[in-house]
């Protein structure tokens, strides 16, 4: 079975093609046979296209003067043409899976995309404006390029559907609940993949583990996982709540927002822009939303960059503590995504804060770019894992499982 995965961002479109036997899923993530990425640069209408295959063939090109759909079509044509050809024709693709960030209350598991599903994704765009419209554009583009191929939406919010109401409902008027205002949580595809991979690495049944998974990228969230289920998470009604992030503020006193609107001439649009794009590491450091650049500035004695680091660590540790309370203990702390996988300093700082639990990190292992590895000392009471998140493979897995359960290809 050939499954194409599309992972849409606000300024990029990543794609992978997996070939999976009909009989069974592999126990570990295979390498995709083909990977493609379109990056739209600051110059309007210019696309940087990068393609590679499992055997090392590559294509790089810049295209201008075309629509985003044309850019995607160009990228997909490299599946069947030139040095990166891996299939004879696009009609060989059996399923197309899409990462969709917000599924609201009605979409609590992966579904075949219909007109109703597309309308729902569009209606939820105001809650995930950077992502849902991009996913919808990818869905429509695939319809035009590949025709009637079966498309499946895999929702980032679905994994968190098991969060109990006491953790999911906000303490406002009950009318909010009736309006669908509640904690949905995000990065669910990553949290779910990493929890399963953690169980594999530890040789344990996932249902027996209490985990905190730390997805630390440009966007950041934690999940508390018990009995294989998400029982708490830091992101909420939108991806803005929770941890301090690259350019997002995370949780702040809502009274600040009222103050800015009432006394500081802020419009709703300016408030949205400040909270999502000019806050977090970028806003405090004045340097960058990229942790690597913040670290470089700290090395040059930049006091604002140091403050940004200290705040990031403080909020990370505070929220890990909150997840601990939900779990009633901890078997493993998991780090993933760009910062989680590549910043030994952040991992060290977070682990040092929980030494009172008997958690001990192996400093040498921590510095050696670990991938899918336990970096706790042998005598640590809590395991510490660094896992390379593979959202694209997780999406392909869910597509395969939905097909097996529904016999989609028989229709």
Describe this structure in words.
With 411 residues, the protein is of the alpha/beta class. The protein is built from 15 helices and 14 strands. The chain has helices at 68-77, 115-123, 132-146, 165-168, 175-178, 188-202, 254-263, 268-277, 280-285, 291-299, 303-327, 337-342, 344-352, 363-366, 391-406, and strands at 2-8, 12-19, 34-40, 47-53, 58-63, 95-100, 111-112, 150-155, 210-216, 220-226, 229-233, 332-336, 373-374, 383-386. The strands form two sheets. The chain has an eight-stranded mixed β-sheet with strand order 5-4-3-2-1-6-8-7, with helices on both faces. A six-stranded mixed β-sheet has the order 11-10-9-12-14-13, with helices on both faces. A hairpin with a 4-residue loop joins β4 and β5. α10 (291-299) crosses α11 (303-327). The longest helix is centred in the C-terminal third of the chain and has 25 residues, at 303-327. The radius of gyration is 21 Å and the shape is globular. The model has no long low-confidence stretch (mean pLDDT 93). This is Acetate kinase. Its main location: cytoplasm. It catalyses: acetate + ATP = acetyl phosphate + ADP.
């Amino acid at each position: 079975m050939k499954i194409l995965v599309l992972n849409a961002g606000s300024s990029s479109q990543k794609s992978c093609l997996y070939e999976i036997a009909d009989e069974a899923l592999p126990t570990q993530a295979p390498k995709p046979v083909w990977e493609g990425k379109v990056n739209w640069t600051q110059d309007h209408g210019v696309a940087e296209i990068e393609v590679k295959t499992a055997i090392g063939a590559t294509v790089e090109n810049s295209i201008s003067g075309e629509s985003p759909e044309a850019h995607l079509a160009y990228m997909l044509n490299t599946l069947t043409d030139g040095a990166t050809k891996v299939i004879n024709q696009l009609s060989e693709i059996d399923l197309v899976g899409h990462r969709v960030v917000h599924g609201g209350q009605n979409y609590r598991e992966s579904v075949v995309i219909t007109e109703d599903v597309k309308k729902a994704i569009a209606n939820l765009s105001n809650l995930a404006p950077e992502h849902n419209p991009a996913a919808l554009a990818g869905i429509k583009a695939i319809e035009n390029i590949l025709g009637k191929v079966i498309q499946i939406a895999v929702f980032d919010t679905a994994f968190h559907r098991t969060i109990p109401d006491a953790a999911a409902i906000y303490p406002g008027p009950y009318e909010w609940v009736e309006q669908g205002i509640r904690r949905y949580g995000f990065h669910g595809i990553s949290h779910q993949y990493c929890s399963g991979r953690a169980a594999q690495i530890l040789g344990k049944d996932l249902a027996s583990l209490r985990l905190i998974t730390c997805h630390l990228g440009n966007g950041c969230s934690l999940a508390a996982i018990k009995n294989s289920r998400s029982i708490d998470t830091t992101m909420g009604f939108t991806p803005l709540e929770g941890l301090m992030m690259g350019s997002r503020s995370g949780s702040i006193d809502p009274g600040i927002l009222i103050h800015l609107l009432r006394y500081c001439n802020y419009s709703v649009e300016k408030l949205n822009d400040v909270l999502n794009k000019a806050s977090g590491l970028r806003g405090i450091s004045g340097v960058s939303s990229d942790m690597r650049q913040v670290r470089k500035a700290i090395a040059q004695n930049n006091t604002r960059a140091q403050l940004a680091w200290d705040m990031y660590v403080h909020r990370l540790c505070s929220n890990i503590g909150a997840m601990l309370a939900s779990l009633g203990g901890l078997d493993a702390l998991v780090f993933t995504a760009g910062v989680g996988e590549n910043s030994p300093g952040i991992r060290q700082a977070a682990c040092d804060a929980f030494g009172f639990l008997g958690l001990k990190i192996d400093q040498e292992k921590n510095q050696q770019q670990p991938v899918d590895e336990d970096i706790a000392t042998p005598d640590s009471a809590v395991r510490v894992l660094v896992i390379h998140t593979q959202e694209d493979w997780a999406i392909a897995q869910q597509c395969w499982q939905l097909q097996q359960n529904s016999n989609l290809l028989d229709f």
